[in-house]
Amino acid sequence: MLRKTQYNLAKFFNFPIEAERNYRVQSMHNEIQKIGGLKFKIQKNNEGWIAECDNPKGIITGGTNPKVTDEEINSQIKDAIFTAFGIPPYLSKDSLLRKTGEPIVIEEERVFA
Questions:
Q1: 98: left (phi over 0), alpha (psi -120 to 50) or beta
Q2: pLDDT of residue 21
Q3: Angle at 80 between CA 45 and CA 108, to 5 degrees
Q4: Contacts of 39 (CB under 8 A, 6+ apart)
Q5: Beta bridge partners of 112
Q6: Using CA atoms, how far apart are residues 113 and 28, in angstroms rounded to an integer?
Q7: Which of 79, 78, 74 is nearest to 105 (CA)?
Q8: pTM of the model
Q9: Which of 21, 38, 68, 75 has its CA 20 to 30 A from that of 85?
């Protein structure tokens, strides 16, 4: 609770917040680096879509929109990654997962580093 209050005060006074220095974010980066990146297999059908991580198992997301855009899929995958690694919403920035902010797309498999 104190950390969130500190974040809110820093944001209010326009103090720069460096999510990259947070121990949870650093731990997430170390873990992702150890396993060589997160690879997601994406399946789409008439009822929606699902994205499942191969390594580590257990990171899953999806939706019921059969006409989902790549941006929506990427956003949902990033949210699932942050949730799986226990990154609170106030530290979750897309740029933490990839320098360009977007995944590498290989057919229907996406890799987040």
A1: beta
A2: 72
A3: 40
A4: 53, 54, 55, 109, 110, 111
A5: 38
A6: 10
A7: 74
A8: 0.73
A9: 68
